[in-house]
Amino acid sequence: MQRRTLLLGLAAIPLAGCAATPAPPVEPGPPITLVSAFQGRTTGQGHFRVWLTGDERRFTARLNGTVTGAEGARTLTVVEDFLYDDGQQDRLTWVFREQGAGRWTGKREDTVGEATVVEEDGQIRLTYLADFKSPSGVNRLGFEDILYARPDGTIVNDAVVTRAGIAVASVRFLIRR
């Protein structure tokens, strides 16, 4: 079985008119950076939801982030081990490179080109394209993520997923130390 089989249905989704970027938090917690969010070991739970059909795929993940290099030229590597509710397992690894104050680029096995990361106002914005394989073919999807901390320290990663520039799905991933 190929990775991310829920995305099969995205090939058949008609155009939908929904927001293309996730909303910022109503009640943000402490400010975060890419390094403070992902350095060390964390765990999380999340779901991927297709808006038109309501189909949902739940997952848990273990993350392990390591930082190398001096400030201003750091590299953050985050290994993500996913377990989906259908038993499928997956490992993906982000490699982020610091480009300057509050600016990073990133690459993962499934990304098309580089992701851009902006740390601003205590939050993180992550934008990237990824090719997901399914039995029906490859789905190229866009991701617009916002990451922020809740007052209790939980990191929230909300994403709007697009196909051909049209918003079709969302992801919510809650990360805890």
Please characterize this protein's 3D structure.
This protein has a single domain (5-176), classed as Lipocalin, CATH 2.40.128.20. It is 3% helix and 60% strand. It has 1 helix and 10 strands. It has one helix at 34-38; strands at 40-50, 56-68, 75-84, 89-100, 103-107, 111-120, 123-134, 137-149, 155-163, 166-176. A 10-stranded antiparallel beta barrel has the order 1-2-3-4-5-6-7-8-9-10. The longest helix is centred in the first third of the chain and has 5 residues, at 34-38. The chain is globular and about 45 Å long. Residues 1-17 have low confidence and may be disordered.
Features:
globular, 3% helix, single chain, disordered N terminus, 10-stranded antiparallel beta barrel, mainly beta, Lipocalin, 177 residues, 1 helix
Write the layout of secondary structure elements.
Layout lengths: L33 H5 L1 E11 L5 E13 L6 E10 L4 E12 L2 E5 L3 E10 L2 E12 L2 E13 L5 E9 L2 E11 L1
Antiparallel strand pairs: 1-2, 1-10, 2-3, 3-4, 4-5, 5-6, 6-7, 7-8, 8-9, 9-10
